[in-house]
């Protein structure tokens, strides 16, 4: 038995612009899989560009903290991507574990483990020349043992030095870095690290750190918490396409106040991932060596 016949559909678990995702069972092995059915008719040869990128990227990336693409099945009229199945995503986990005050019930150890695994997966992507460009809790999956796996590489791109121009219509709003919000089309792996900083803060807070409802509102939410950036803090700021000197000026950063109950090393790693100047942000490898993760680094 081969091809699509090998997988028995159980239920629909998600739906997006280009297709539907089903939970299914491999009838030969009994293991659960996720089957993404791609709607054809878009892009080159009728296959959506996002699907082509996802296939190419995930065939290359093989890592314990990245969702595994098992196989692709092209029937002529339909394209199916077969992934390992994971029962939860981090968004669902955050929502189901939060108490009445929106504070998650995650222990310090769980937060540390999730953050470390996320950064390991991101470091692996970057070491293989891939920017994810859409890191958010919905795209971070978990298995029953608490293993974090990064998924949904539809917006991922390979990068090169010197940096070339990319689309700035990427990264879900609440996790989008300020350089992209301000219209920069030249960005690099540091964009993913901003998203990681937002996610790590959210693991503690139980809610997104910056919850804007539009691009300008998102910028103002960031400015109000981190302070409005200046040319001194961020060389090249004034050359950003959408930067305006008339932007409101928040001078007093409030991140330490918002994360007031966290240990100093967690606050420090979030602060250094959420730096305005992309060149000054921690790389994923640097972040993994941060004192916050000392007990993991020994392993």
UniProtKB/TrEMBL annotation:
Residues engaged in binding ATP: 37
UniProt cross-references to PANTHER family, sorted A to Z: CELL DIVISION PROTEIN KINASE, CYCLIN-DEPENDENT KINASE 2
Coiled coil: none
Domain Protein kinase positions: 7-293
Keyword Kinase: yes
Catalytic activity: L-seryl-[protein] + ATP = O-phospho-L-seryl-[protein] + ADP + H(+); L-threonyl-[protein] + ATP = O-phospho-L-threonyl-[protein] + ADP + H(+)
The protein's name in its UniProt record: cyclin-dependent kinase
InterPro entries given in the database record: CDK, Kinase-like_dom_sf, Prot_kinase_dom, Protein_kinase_ATP_BS, Ser/Thr_kinase_AS
EC number: 2.7.11.22
PROSITE patterns: PROTEIN_KINASE_ATP, PROTEIN_KINASE_DOM, PROTEIN_KINASE_ST
Keywords from the named record: ATP-binding, Kinase, Nucleotide-binding, Serine/threonine-protein kinase, Transferase
GO molecular function, one term: cyclin-dependent protein serine/threonine kinase activity
Keyword Transcription: no
Family (UniProt): Belongs to the protein kinase superfamily. CMGC Ser/Thr protein kinase family. CDC2/CDKX subfamily.
Tree of life domain: Eukaryota
């Amino acid at each position: 038995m081969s091809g699509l016949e090998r997988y028995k559909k159980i239920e629909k678990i998600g739906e997006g612009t280009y297709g539907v995702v089903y939970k299914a069972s491999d009838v030969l092995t009994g293991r659960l899989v996720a089957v993404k059915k791609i709607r054809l008719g878009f892009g080159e040869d009728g296959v959506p560009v996002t699907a082509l990128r996802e296939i190419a990227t995930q065939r290359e990336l093989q890592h314990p903290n990245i969702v595994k693409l098992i196989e692709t099945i092209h029937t002529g009229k339909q394209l199916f991507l077969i992934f390992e199945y994971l029962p939860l995503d981090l968004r669902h986990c955050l929502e189901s574990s939060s108490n009445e005050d929106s504070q998650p019930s995650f222990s310090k150890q769980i937060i540390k483990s999730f953050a470390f695994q996320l950064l390991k997966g991101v470091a692996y992507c970057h070491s293989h020349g891939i920017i994810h460009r859409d890191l958010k809790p919905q795209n971070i999956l978990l298995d029953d043992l608490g293993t974090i796996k990064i998924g949904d590489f539809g917006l991922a791109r390979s990068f090169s030095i010197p940096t070339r121009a990319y689309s700035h219509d990427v990264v879900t709003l609440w996790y989008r870095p300020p350089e992209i919000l301000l219209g920069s089309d030249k960005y690099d792996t540091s964009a993913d690290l901003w998203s990681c900083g937002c996610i790590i803060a959210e693991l503690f807070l139980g809610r997104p750190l910056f919850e804007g409802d539009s691009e300008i509102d998102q910028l103002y939410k960031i400015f109000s918490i981190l302070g409005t950036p200046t040319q001194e803090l961020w060389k090249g700021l004034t050359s950003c396409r959408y930067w305006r000197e008339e932007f409101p000026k928040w001078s007093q950063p409030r991140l330490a106040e918002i994360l007031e109950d966290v240990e100093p090393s967690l606050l420090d790693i979030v602060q250094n991932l959420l730096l305005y100047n992309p060149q000054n942000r921690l790389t994923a490898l640097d972040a993994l060596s941060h004192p916050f993760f000392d007990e993991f680094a020994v392993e």
